[in-house]
Amino acid sequence: MKIEVLGTGCSSCKALYEKIVKVAAEIQSSATINKVEDITEIMKYNVMATPAVVIDGKVVMQGSLPKESQIKEWLSNTNILDKKELVKQRYNDLALVSDAKSKCCCNPYAAELPSKKVYTIMSEDYSKLKGYEPDADLGVGCGLPTQYARIQKGDTVVDLGSGAGNDCFIAREETGETGRVIGIDFAPQMLAKARNNATKRGFTNVEFLEGDIENMPLADNTADVVVSNCVLNLLPEKDKIFREIYRVLKPNGHFCISDVVLNGHFPKEFTDNAAMYAGCIASAIQREDYLGEIEKAGFIDIKVERTKTVTIPDEVLEEHLDATTIQKYKAGNVGIYSITVTGKRPVL
Ligand SMILES: C[S@@+](CC[C@H](N)C(=O)[O-])C[C@H]1O[C@@H](n2cnc3c(N)ncnc32)[C@H](O)[C@@H]1O
């Protein structure tokens, strides 16, 4: 989302620009916000009065000052493409944060990067698993999909939203040298970390492809097993992704996915929050709807292997939400769960 504040440098124009920047920072919006002060540029928008606000090329207000609630509404009104872009940007940044930490703060952007807390509240301890690669473990998963994935020697395994490669290296332990592991991610910084980790381990049968998992760069019937850890909840259109998993799995192939699901209805201010969204919480759907989407895509033998309750610590809630939203959320009798679910593509 691109927001432009039009005005020829008047004090109310400056104040409006600063107010939008402040609200955007508070709700962690990914919108780009610019001031336009050049009169020729302003005239291109045909506005009759300034200050004016233009969102993605469309004038949404002119000659008056919006309330904070109006600005929040503009910023929260993120469409599907913006949401994907937000996720890509946040996970790119997160890869940089982990670099900044592991390289002892020599990353020049370290101070500007987001806090990791909201992304890591659901992570599992991977450190005792065979194949564990510490540099691939950013703590951003919500389960252990390989645990129920029944991976055999020689299998082709595809990991959706592979991050720095954490589950790919565990899967490689199980496929052995005769198998193949393919991680797919759309965040270039994550891919760079994952490829670096594979090179370091000397693996020639673990590869990382850049791509959107809703439209995978893979032929039909490629995989024996699909795994994924805390990713599908980031996709606004769950039906699309389950159809795509069905396409890339071989007949009789199966998946094991750890993901976040919800029970009960959450306050809109909660689900609109950008950090909660990118942290895999706000974008999750109801458990029954989630399982329904898997069934609709044509899978059989669907089984929830494990359910874990997710508790968001107060400090994380307080960092991202206002007091009223937190109160509504706590009073709402709602639940957040990490589930690990398996299913099979039938032979038709
Ligand atoms: C919560 S992290 C999980 C990473 C990894 N599975 C793990 O457990 O360490 C989500 C990852 O999915 C990727 N991702 C999200 N949406 C995607 C999409 N539509 N296509 C490809 N990758 C995506 C993000 O870039 C990020 O690396």
Describe this structure as you would to a colleague:
The chain has 348 residues and is an alpha/beta fold. The protein folds into 3 domains: 2-76, Glutaredoxin (3-Layer(aba) Sandwich), CATH 3.40.30; 80-110; 117-344, Rossmann fold (3-Layer(aba) Sandwich). The protein has 13 helices and 11 strands. The protein has helices at residues 11-26, 39-43, 68-76, 80-102, 117-120, 166-175, 188-201, 238-248, 268-271, 274-278, 287-296, 314-320, 323-331, and strands spanning 2-6, 32-36, 52-55, 58-62, 156-160, 180-185, 206-210, 223-229, 249-263, 300-309, 335-344. Helix 1 (11-26) crosses helix 3, helix 4 packs across helix 7 and helix 8 crosses helix 11. The two termini are 44 Å apart. Residues 100-114 have low confidence and may be disordered. S-adenosylmethionine is lined by residues 84, 87-88, 91, 138, 140-141, 161-163, 166-167, 184-187, 190, 212-214, 229-231, 234-235, 280.
Q: What proportion strand?
A: 15-25%
Strand order across the largest sheet: 7-6-5-8-9-11-10
Structural class: alpha/beta
Q: Would you tell me the overall average pLDDT?
A: 87
CA(first)-CA(last) distance: 44 Å
Radius of gyration: 22 Å
**CATH homology group of the largest domain:** Vaccinia Virus protein VP39
Helix content: 25-40%
Please mark out the parts with pLDDT under 50 across 5 or more consecutive residues, or reply none.
100-114
> How would the global form be characterised?
elongated
Q: Number of DSSP helices?
A: 13
Ligands in the model, by name, code or SMILES, are: S-adenosylmethionine
Largest sheet: 7 strands, mixed
Number of distinct beta strands: 11
Tell me which CATH architecture of the largest domain applies here.
Answer: 3-Layer(aba) Sandwich
The string of secondary-structure elements, in order, is EHEHEEHHHEHEHEEHEHHHEHHE
What name does CATH use for the topology of the largest domain?
Answer: Rossmann fold
Number of domains: 3
- CATH C-level class of the largest domain: Alpha Beta
